[in-house]
């Protein structure tokens, strides 16, 4: 239809009639005069609407299914993630138990030596410069850590703090070639100096060249002036070999450190020194010697031989 004056008048007339019918229908309520026309329209157009609804419903259902599928996928992904995290937690139970044991041993060591310690975790190995035997721990100056503090774990001496940052610190390990610590032999009090040798045992030069020392003897730290960098009494290691060619001035022994310096996890930095030298009290109890097996020999007399009585033996030739 072309846009003419007559068409515009017709459109206005139809709109006015529509408003009039709506007004009459509303005012009439249930007795509306247009109710019959509405029912007739429903009879004519109802099947058409039902068919359209039937055709459209599968599409709507499919869309809903896709939307629900996405929701279910998200829920499934969340459940799978929770399951993986749970498996990881269960799988790391051994690590947690190991850490609990490490912490327990370290607290006992600190208590025996009356050391005030701050616990830390080893987060890196090595240093940015050089090839030193060092580790990085996750505490620093913000935690009260200072240079030249003693570092230990539940087994014994680990090293000393060399570099301190706000939140991390570098620890020079006891097996580093540049590491030296004063030592004291258990019981005999023989003094010496232990030096690191990398992956080999510590080398200890005893000041007394005629000191009596044997494999299995144990050493602790002698301590430093003002307890920096080493506090006294920290277990160092056990003698694994004695150099037979001892000199007149010093004697060399080799010591296996108590602390496993290649498998560190939790350590403690001594931030409060003991009031008095703990001496040998921090050392673990000595292992009990393994009892020698008892051998019982049973002698069975040969047939026809007489068994001696009254503790006396008989010579067949005397009979």
Automatic annotation (TrEMBL):
Function: Involved in formation and maintenance of cell shape.
Record's compositionally biased regions (Polar residues): 310-319
GO terms for cellular component: plasma membrane
Organism whose genome encodes this protein: Streptomyces poonensis
Entry annotated with the keyword ATP-binding: no
Segments of skewed composition (Low complexity): 293-303
Protein name, as recorded: Cell shape-determining protein MreC
Stretches assigned to the Rod shape-determining protein MreC beta-barrel core domain: 130-270
């Amino acid at each position: 239809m072309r846009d003419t004056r007559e068409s515009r008048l017709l459109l206005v007339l139809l709109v006015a009639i529509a408003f009039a019918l709506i007004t009459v229908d509303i005012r009439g309520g249930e007795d509306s005069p247009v109710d019959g026309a509405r029912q007739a329209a429903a009879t004519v157009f109802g099947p058409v609407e039902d068919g359209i609804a039937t055709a459209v419903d599968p599409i709507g259902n499919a869309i809903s299914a896709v939307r629900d599928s996405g929701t279910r996928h998200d829920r499934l992904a969340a459940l799978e993630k929770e399951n993986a995290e749970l498996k990881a937690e269960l799988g790391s139970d051994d690590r947690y138990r190991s850490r609990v044991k490490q912490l327990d041993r370290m607290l006992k060591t600190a208590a025996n030596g009356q050391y005030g310690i701050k616990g830390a975790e080893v987060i890196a190995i090595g240093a940015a410069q050089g090839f030193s035997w060092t580790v990085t721990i996750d505490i620093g100056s913000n935690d009260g850590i200072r240079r030249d503090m003693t570092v230990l774990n539940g087994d014994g001496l680990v090293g000393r703090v060399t570099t301190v940052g706000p939140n991390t610190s570098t620890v020079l390990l006891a097996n580093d070639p540049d590491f030296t610590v004063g030592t004291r032999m258990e019981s005999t009090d023989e003094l010496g100096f232990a030096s690191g040798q990398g992956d080999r045992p510590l080398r200890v030069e005893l000041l007394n060249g005629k000191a009596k020392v044997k494999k299995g003897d144990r050493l602790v730290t002698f301590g430093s002036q003002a307890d920096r960098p080493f506090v006294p009494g920290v277990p160092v290691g056990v003698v694994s070999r004695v150099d037979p060619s001892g000199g007149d001035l010093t004697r060399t022994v080799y010591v296996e450190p108590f602390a496993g310096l290649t498998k560190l996890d939790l350590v403690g930095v001594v931030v409060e020194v003991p009031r008095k030298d703990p001496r040998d009290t921090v050392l673990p109890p000595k292992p009990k010697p393994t009892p020698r097996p008892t051998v019982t020999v049973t002698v069975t007399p040969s047939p026809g031989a007489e068994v001696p009585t009254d503790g006396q033996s008989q010579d067949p030739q005397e009979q």
